[in-house]
């Protein structure tokens, strides 16, 4: 059945989440601290079918926390999919109402984040240990809004409790219109390989669209995860770090050529400064600059890299970045953009 499914699904074909059309089958994963608005804008520009906000803390959004409102912004990206996290139905429902009123087209409930900070508050993947409570959150969110609600989860808390199929089926019955599954348990964090075959049990349990996630780096990976999971679309996360255009490349769109990368990286840097302000933007940008330099300027001297990574002078950083990326002779690394 999964092989027949693959024959009818091409990565560049559209699908729908409820009544919301999605232009292709490669989705940029929500990654806290990574997929902020500047990153999502670049990913969507280069062809990602759908981009998802960083995890927005529901209670903090209701109480007007500046960070949550910053993460909520969509800046005209359509469709605008907002991921909410939380433990209490009241706050998730109210946050979903706020998100819908501020342009969200789809609400995603985070039941997959393995971070200790998140599960310590009994949210994210910790909810998979309490399916009844998780369903109460889903039901409250679905009832609160008119737009589609989706859920992102893992296979289970650990290998002894691989309950994703059961939770997905109950979520569908509660009105959820798409499920995304990362092919690891919470206890695996990001260790080992994602189990693409195990996702197929969720496919067998639901009729709504399924997105498969975990360790997708190449077009071949994307096709294989579809074949082995029976999913309708693919979510790509860490493979896009240091190359926000990569989701579109997997669909078949052209990424930047080697000569365009220095200017594009500087553009991304300036977008972050504009989004956060210079002082905060310089700090937030550092992880991205490290990924870019590791991919496309591997021959850069450690002292020069350290100067770029630690400087608070945005003008210096932008100029040094462009010089380093333009001067790099690491053609092999640059080919990763294509």
TrEMBL record:
Sites where the protein binds FMN: 83, 152, 182, 237-238
CDD domains with a match to the protein in the record: DUS_like_FMN (cd02801)
Residue ranges annotated for the DUS-like FMN-binding domain, each copy included: 28-300
EC numbers: 1.3.1.-
Listed cofactors: FMN
Positions annotated as active site in the UniProt record: 113 (proton donor)
Protein name (database record): tRNA-dihydrouridine synthase
Organism expressing this protein natively: Rhizobium glycinendophyticum
Gene encoding the protein: dusB
């Amino acid at each position: 059945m999964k092989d027949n499914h693959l024959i009818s699904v091409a990565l560049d074909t559209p699908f729908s989440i409820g009544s919301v059309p999605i232009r292709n089958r490669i989705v940029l994963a929500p990654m806290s601290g990574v997929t902020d608005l500047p990153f999502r804008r670049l990913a969507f520009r280069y062809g990602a079918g759908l981009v998802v906000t960083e995890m927005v803390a529901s209670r903090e959004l209701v109480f007007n926390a500046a960070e949550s409102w910053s993460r909520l912004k969509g800046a005209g990206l359509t469709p605008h999919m907002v991921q909410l996290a939380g433990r209490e139905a009241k706050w998730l429902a109210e946050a979903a109402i706020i998100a819908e009123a501020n342009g969200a087209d789809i609400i995603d409930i985070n039941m997959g984040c393995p971070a200790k900070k998140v599960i310590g508050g009994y949210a994210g993947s910790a909810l998979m240990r309490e399916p009844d409570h998780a369903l109460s959150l889903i039901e409250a969110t679905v009832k609160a809004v008119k737009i589609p609600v989706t859920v992102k989860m893992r296979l289970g808390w650990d290998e002894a409790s691989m309950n994703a199929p059961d939770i997905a089926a109950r979520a569908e019955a509660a009105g959820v219109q798409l499920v995304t599954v990362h092919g690891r348990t919470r206890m695996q964090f990001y260790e080992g390989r994602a189990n693409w075959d195990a996702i197929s049990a969720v496919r067998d349990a639901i009729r709504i669209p399924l997105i498969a996630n975990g360790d997708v780096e190449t077009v071949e990976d994307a096709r294989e995860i579809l074949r082995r999971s029976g999913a309708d679309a693919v979510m790509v996360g860490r493979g896009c770090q240091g190359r926000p255009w990569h989701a579109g490349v997997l669909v078949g769109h052209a990424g930047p050529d080697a000569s365009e990368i220095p200017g594009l990286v500087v553009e991304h840097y300036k977008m972050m400064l504009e989004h956060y302000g210079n002082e905060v933007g310089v700090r937030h940008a550092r992880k991205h600059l490290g990924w870019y330099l590791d991919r496309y300027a591997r021959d850069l001297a450690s002292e020069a890299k350290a100067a770029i990574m630690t400087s608070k002078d945005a003008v210096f950083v932008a100029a040094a970045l462009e010089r380093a990326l333009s001067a790099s002779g690491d053609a092999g690394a640059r080919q990763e953009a294509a």
